[in-house]
Design brief:
By secondary structure, this protein is α+β, with helices and mostly antiparallel strands. The protein has 17 helices and ten strands. It is globular. Bound molecules: protoporphyrin IX containing FE (HEM).
Length: 496
């Protein structure tokens, strides 16, 4: 039930916001790295403010409390996504979970995805993640100049093994190159305003010969569907004859009848997990390297914890998690410090609503400024400082709760019913990789021609539409003690 705040005679208005131009509204006032401009406006217009993007009403939420009040307590109204014509309707045939409209089709895929990602299932994926983490540490030492690409390869490989149960892959694996291309196409297509058809939906009805973007998009959809079906086929055959390895795809196929999934839905859902997880997680690992280069004292403290708890005779694994509170705090701080999807994925409200005396009309686009929330100095003093201690009590053994964040300590995975389906898997992946890397190597400076240490900038980022990652920089990876490589190799042999 919607209650008008000031009685039937009052005419509530939308939250305040910056003045824009006729027709275009605030479009031209929002440059790349939109979250920075929105965070500036938060200071001026408050925790909830509105914008007009060429006629589209937008409300920006800048506080965890408001996000919880709306996206969680009123989730029935706030769980829809806007139309993503290119990313959803054309490129993915309405089968890409993150951008699907809220409704029965979304519910069906969401439920099936949950089966393969719920916390009870996650340990099954640990061997694949651990194996890749040891390989990553080894490769960083051997080829430090390629660390940025190696992180992308390693993350994609880990996700592919987790999703399809396949062995680790090489740099130039054609499947991964194809899948990364697909993921990138989607990330870019999801960026607001990338295609004119998003602003003028009637363009969708243009015949294909007049609309090359539509023709190409539909052709990609055909090709991508075939590619995803081809990837899935061997796994479904193995499941059917009982020779499969544990994987998301195998789990899903075992439950496909129960979830009433078509072959196409199964293929797209498994593919979604692969590229939903790869780009995002590799961007976080790249920020991890940046943080370690800029905050060597954090690295040393984490390594002291590893030496104390694990020693130098074996590689850390998931079962050490409880004993490594500082490493867990470091993972939280990393996700807080640089939320790689700083504005998440937009929502669209399904009916008029009222909040704090303001009207939020049906159809309004809702932007969740995770960057602003994670960098709120009232909650996180000196927010641009990388300081895992902020999540620990004075004994540095117990994690302190941050209200409204479901024990995450940050809001990088979003809120409510559309919260990231892979958040527990991603956290497990980050924990294993970070513990293994810090146990085995020091992240050290590279030097320029004049012998000066190269210091990367904490604010040089690449804006990839819905995702951001640091600009590549040079650094070095040095084994921490003799025998590291032998122990990494042994751990690999054990988990393969
Ligand atoms: C650190 C890495 C990751 C980050 C930062 C991240 C972030 C996000 C965010 C912000 C959303 C939108 C949430 C919202 O609207 O409130 C999302 C949705 C989603 N994520 Fe992730 N994600 C990560 C890793 C993963 C992984 C590993 C998977 C799968 C294996 C995954 C699968 C999904 C899916 C399927 C959705 C769509 C949920 C829906 O709309 O129903 N993500 N993610």
């Amino acid at each position: 039930i919607v209650i008008r705040p000031n009685g039937p005679k009052s005419r509530p208005t939308m939250p305040p916001g910056p003045k824009g131009l006729p027709f275009l509204g605030n479009v031209l006032q929002i440059p790349a790295f939109q979250f920075l401009r929105l965070t500036e406006w938060k200071e001026q217009f408050g925790l909830i403010f509105s914008l007009n993007l060429a006629g589209q009403q937008v409300v920006v939420i800048n506080s965890v409390k408001i996000a919880v009040d709306l996206l969680e307590r009123r989730s029935g109204l706030y769980s829809d996504r806007p139309r993503f014509i290119m990313a959803s309707e054309i490129l993915t045939g309405n089968l890409f979970l993150p951008v699907m409209k809220y409704g029965d089709a979304w519910r069906k895929l969401h439920k099936a995805a949950h089966e393969g990602l719920k916390s009870q299932v996650l340990p099954v994926y640990q061997p694949a993640q651990a194996l890749e983490a040891t390989l990553l540490a080894q490769n960083l030492v051997n080829r430090p100049e390629e660390w940025y690409e190696e992180i992308k390869r390693s993350t994609a490989s880990s996700m592919k093994t987790m999703v399809y149960g396949t062995p680790p892959i090489a740099y130039d694996d054609p499947v991964v190159a194809y899948m990364n291309g697909m993921g990138h196409r989607l990330t870019v297509a999801m960026a607001p305003g990338k295609y004119l058809v998003e602003l003028f939906p009637k363009m969708l009805y243009l015949p294909s010969w007049l609309a090359p973007w539509k023709r190409e998009g539909l052709a990609w959809h055909e090709r991508d569907t075939q590619e995803l079906k081809d990837l899935l086929r061997p796994i479904t055959e193995q499941v059917d004859n009982g020779t499969h390895k544990p994987s998301f795809a195998a789990n899903l196929h075992l439950a496909a009848n129960e979830h009433n999934l078509t072959q196409k839905e199964e293929a797209w859902l498994t593919g979604t997990m692969f590229f939903g997880g790869s780009d995002t997680s590799s961007a976080v690992l790249a920020f991890f390297i940046l943080a370690m280069r800029l905050y060597p004292q954090v690295m040393k403290k984490a390594q002291a914890e590893l030496d104390r708890v694990i020693g130098r005779d074996r590689v850390p694994d998931l079962s050490d998690r409880e004993e490594l509170p500082y490493i867990r705090a470091l993972v939280k701080e990393l996700l807080r410090w640089c939320p790689v999807g700083p504005l998440g994925i937009p929502r669209q409200i399904q009916q008029d609503d009222y909040y704090d005396g303001y009207l939020i009309p049906k159809g309004t686009l809702i932007l969740v400024n995770s960057w602003g929330m994670n960098n709120d100095p009232e909650v996180f003093p000196d927010p641009r400082e990388f300081r895992p201690e902020r999540f620990l009590d004075p004994t540095e053994t117990i994690h302190v709760a941050v209200p409204g964040t479901r024990n995450q300590g940050h809001v990088t995975f979003g809120f409510g019913r559309r919260i990231c389906s892979g958040m527990n898997l991603a956290t497990q992946f980050l924990f294993i990789n970070i513990a293994t890397l810090l146990w085995s190597v020091n992240v050290e400076p590279a030097y320029d021609q004049d012998g000066q240490a190269i210091v990367p900038s904490p604010t040089d980022w690449i804006d990839e539409g819905t995702l951001m990652r640091p600009v590549p920089f040079r650094c070095n990876f040095v084994p921490r003690f003799n025998g590291v490589e032998t122990l990494l190799r042994r751990a690999r042999e054990k988990s393969s």
